[in-house]
Amino acid sequence: MTHPDAPKPPAPPPDEVAPPASLPKLADFLCFAVYSANLAYGRAYKAILDELGVTYTQWITIVALWEQDDQTVSGLGEKLFLESNTLTPILKKLESLGYLQRQRDPADERQVRVSLTPAGRNLREKGGQRTLVQASGLTPEEFKTVQKTVSRLRDNLLKHAEGER
């Protein structure tokens, strides 16, 4: 036992001080779990996407057009949660690769419509059937549950953010 009058050792430098136990650690943050899972998905998809010659954002754009071809840029942006200034360069690149075409809507010149070319539709056969369900280590039922839960989380956060504007 040290004597109460004994000199105290110097305090450690600030970067060596442990955070109080009551503060959450990085691993406790759901936002970090989602963020890092997104990065892991990017790594897992890399080989597939490299073979197809597209980025992940280009890929999900094509997938959204498989689901509903010939849609407006604004509608596609809403579906992908992308602003026009982010989506337009992606569309231009996919158009230059021959996977889609953009044209003004004859009924409303202010709107640009996007549709897949035959090459864009053929990407489905080339790589569209590959999924990472098995790589996730989840059962198909767990995978579906997680996907629905994360989607609900996203939607709730977007509602919250819109309510604070």
UniProtKB/TrEMBL annotation:
Keywords: Cytoplasm, DNA-binding, Transcription, Transcription regulation. Residues 27-155 form the HTH marR-type domain. Its main location: cytoplasm. This is MarR family transcriptional regulator. It comes from Nitrospirillum amazonense. One of its GO terms (molecular function) is DNA binding. It is found in: Cytoplasm. GO terms for biological process: response to stress. Pfam families: Staph_reg_Sar_Rot.
